[in-house]
Amino acid sequence: MKQFLEGAQAIAKTVSLCKPAVISAYPITPQTHIVEEIATLIANGQLNAEFVNVESEHSAASCVLGAVASGVRAYSSTSSQGLLLMTEVLFNIAGMRLPVVMCCVNRAVSAPINIWNDQQDIMTVRDAGLILLFAENIQEACDLHIQAFKIAEDKDIMLPTIINIDGFILSHGYEPVEIPQQELVDKFLPEYNPPYKLDVNNPLTFGSLIGPEYYLETRYAIHETLNNEVKKKILDVAEEFTKIFARKSYGLFEEYKTQDAETIFVSMGSISGPIKDVVDELRYKQQKVGLLRIISYRPFPQEIVKVLSKAKKVIVIDKSISLGAQSPLYQDVVSSFYITLQSDAIKTLPKVVGYICGLGGRDVSKEEIFEIYQEKDFVSTKFVSVKQENLGSFI
Amino acid sequence: MKEVIIFARAGQGAITTAQILGSALVKSGLYAYAFPHFGAARMGAPMNAFLRYDTKPIRLRTRIKLADYSIVVDETLFSEQDPNESLKNSGICLINSQKEYKSLDGKKIISVPAGRISQEITGKVFANTVLLGGICAISNEFKIDLLYESIKERFKGELQQLNLKLAEEGYKYIKKI
User: Fold this and answer.
1) Which of A62, A128, B11, B99 is the most exposed place for a label (fewest CB within 10 A)?
2) Which member of A137, A174, A364 has the closest CB to residue B62?
3) Domain spanning B2-176: which CATH class is it, in words?
């Protein structure tokens, strides 16, 4: 039965069905509701887990690192500055090949302080060796959590996974959500049985000093795992999830009306919802438009080129920017195209344009998406709806 | 798709109001999406909760500028602004107020002394629940029985009884006028 639940509550309930043994987190808006609800579930005896209160996100990440290293399932959640404070530890977790699962409730990064949504925070750890998934709605956020443990903990993978959800829009939004039965989750998600762990009877060292002879291979191994095992596993797990839970899960990316599309939007996260609405309205007016929604941002599915190269124009929408260069998703789409062209798998390139919107919680209206669709000029890093009067003396 | 805006100050229960109303709509077989927008993110600061509902899943997540129904929990938010401005054409606004507002261009502004009603019954100001009962009397899209069910899920014990009573009073108040 569907319940009308807040995103954070729904995620907390779902995480609890995955039976983590250790939760550690430090409060930060807009993530806090998730771990508050998990703490309540533990206090009420509904979840048998240890909640470790810590003094910072650096410690929270360290705590789940230690927990997973000791051989149990662990979970954390954070946003923005909190994620930035975890950065050092997240690289360690990936390097030690520990399958921590986390939620990043995406929020803008200071300064100036801004508690609202964009996707800049997660881009700071884009290259750490994490699996990064993006949810469009609350149901998908829950579904991806269940899948994340299964992907991360696979013996051939053993990599941390972060599920990204847009701050406030999904974390504080209420939607009808199906929280699955415990038996189904148990059937889908086996107990965590790590191939290695901290054990006094079989001592191991994690993250030790390693010389130039070996370090490069550790990076190579993570890279290869992401591009091979993880991509395959994401698809397999989505398929199995769809069967067991009788609810569609899309895997690496979702295609929405791309079949005969001449223009295809590319986006990730909750902004894909209004884009789908715009696609429907344009389709009604006989315009051939579609959307390709990225779910797995790392590993990045270069396979999208197969879908996108049939279009004449590709419009990439980012909620973050690599200041001084282009926006991250745009860079990934453009380079995927160029690499595929070089390998002769495609002969021509569509026009690929890039827009940046929604930074620091700026509303993105359907009208703005329509305007983006209609724009004829080539743009690569265009900020949507910049208000000249707000710029002051900075330009 | 219909759209509702709740005007309140942080701490006055706008999100709870949207959640309870949304839950009642979902129980009636519709899809709904409720979400808050904070201004200064501080207790007492003006804020909104938004609610969309439709026969199909809601994908639109932008803030609502004009509502089919607006619920004003705190009248002082409209000291400089006309509640008519919160509405689409033929929209209805339910405002917690003891004074009358002029309705413009086919819109309707209905005053309910929700704060006073709550104060008299509970000794506390739960104006939002009175308004929730009221809106069920305005449109049959909002079913009072399902509202009661949602309130029962949201609150337990004495708080549940108080809120049920206040919703009923709000419903009866509108039915009478």
Assistant:
1) B99
2) A364
3) alpha beta
